[in-house]
Amino acid sequence: MSDFNNGYARPLPQSADMSVDAGLRAFMLGVYNKLALGLVVAGVLAYVTGNVPAVQQLLFARTDDGRIGLTLLGMIIQFSPLVLLFGSMFFMKNPTAKGVNLLYWAVVSTIGAGLGVLFLRYTGGSLASTFFVTAAAFAGLSLVGYTTKKDLTAMGSFLIMGVIGLIIASIVNMFMQSGALYLIISALGVLIFSGLIAYDTQRLKMTYYALGGNQEAMGVATGFGALSLFINFVNLFQFLLAFMGGSRE
């Protein structure tokens, strides 16, 4: 259930100085460094939970029809990111950089552990190739969001509504088990999260200008920004696997 959580919903400021300066570059670099480290941590945890038998058996199990299911602990891990994100909306009314940092690593760790199931469903080669395609797409889309002069606010609002639609459609398909609907959801997911990468990158840039050099606020924004981009990356990766992943099953 790590698929649909897009955190850090903040409105864009109405105006900003769009010139590129050293402070903005340092701010964005801090976000990207945190994102990169989060992807490494998530990847290591996914590899461990998906390939180390003693750990794998704690989270995943085969059902009677041969499908991969979740143990009780596995279900807790899968739903933990949603609980953490929704809980943060109520318990982090005045977030601090330290609190957001803890939230970020908690979400990264639980999503990473849950992604171990992908090693049971797809071949290692297809996971690696899909990851590199996702990374290349992410870099290009983030560059678009960083450099475009067009305000993406309206598009972002539309895409967030699309995420809600994806959640509903995915819940429906849990009961229908329709392969065609699954492919439609995956295609829409690729488009929606591609757009969100560009939108969230622009939002981070505008947020930097709005904060006016407030270091504590920028620490919070760095954590939320990395979290938002991390979730976008993971979702894009998972939806691309529907088309690029070589199945083990």
Question: Could you outline the blueprint of secondary structure elements for this entry?
Answer:
Blueprint: H1 22-51, H2 53-59, E1 60-62, E2 68-70, H3 72-91, H4 97-114, H5 117-121, H6 124-147, H7 153-176, H8 179-211, H9 215-244
Antiparallel strand pairs: 1-2
Characterise this structure.
The structure is a single chain. This protein is mainly alpha-helical and 249 residues long. It is 77% helix and 2% strand. The chain contains nine helices and two strands; from the N terminus they run ααββααααααα. A two-stranded antiparallel ribbon has the order 1-2. A hairpin with a 5-residue loop joins strand 1 (60-62) and strand 2 (68-70). The protein is globular. The model is unreliable at 7-19 (pLDDT under 50).
Order of helices and strands: HHEEHHHHHHH
Distance between the termini: 20 Å
Shape: globular
Based on secondary structure, the structural category is mainly alpha
**In which range does the helix fraction lie?**
over 70%
How much strand content do the residues show? Answer: under 5%
Instruction: Describe the largest sheet.
Output: 2 strands, antiparallel
Mean pLDDT: 90
**Spatial strand sequence of the major β-sheet:** 1-2
Tell me the total number of β-strands: 2
> How many H/I helical runs?
9
* Gyration radius, rounded: 18 Å
Low-confidence blocks of residues: 7-19
